[in-house]
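Q&A log
Question type: sequence-to-structure
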Amino acid sequence: MADPQQYIKFMSDIIDSGTWAGLSSGAKTLYPVLLKFSDQNFKQVWPSTSTLLKLTGFKTKKSVIDAKKDLIDKGLIQTKSGSGHSNSIYYFTFNYPGSKITPRWDNSIHPRGAETHTAGGDGNRPQGDETGHPNHINITITNTQIQKDPEKEKKKKMDSSSDFEKLIDDYGEEIYSYAYAIAKSKDLHNNIAYMRGICKKKTEELSKSTKNKQVSNNRVSWSSFLEWTEKKLTASSSNLLKELEVEITGNKLLIFGQVSGFLEQVIQRYFLDNSDIPLEVEFESMPKKNRVFS
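Response status: OK
Response body:
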């Protein structure tokens, strides 16, 4: 029998819905590479950026970030940024127009919205005389504008790419993506000075927030999770979770009982996003008596 790890699970509905056709080439390259690390239940994955660069063939971190952003915008993944000691976590979602696949994550967790792209230029054409033929002045201006030194243009592009790479190295992927989204909305995403200003301001805000934040060692409780499920999940799913037995040992949350792959992802996602001290969630099929985490 063939090794099942030789195959990647890919939902054909992504193609049938037209979502795949709308992806950038970078997103189409990154998506199957991310799927390679997951399983048949589309569990979350956390490959490093260096690994993604190696497997996708991308040359820069910016290429990974742009491809990741496109997948997020199209509803195929969501991410949780890592720290200096941990990788970003990628969650597979199917929250795109016309999707027939479940589960779909709640939009309120990570709002998704495609950016609006506008055509470059103002569409103005050189003015001519009444016969419609351009006059001599306009011809001269046009010729001057298109006469560019190829070597200078090549060097300019290389310098620009290097500047953006340094921006990612200096401030990290999360802050860079935040700055890019703001600059993109103002059509200033190619302005390195503007981007750096946003990154610097955001870093100062985060630093100030960290200094003013009181140190907390509280963890979210299982009971608070159950209250959350009553609002976010179906009644049947919420009731099923209430029947589970749970136990906490150190930084590990043990859950005893049978749950679907979808509910496993919901539980892991909740405790990753809401706990001050991240808990490692493990599932055991055999229930044990009198084990309750509250």
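Response note: The chain has three domains: 4-92, 153-212, 222-284.
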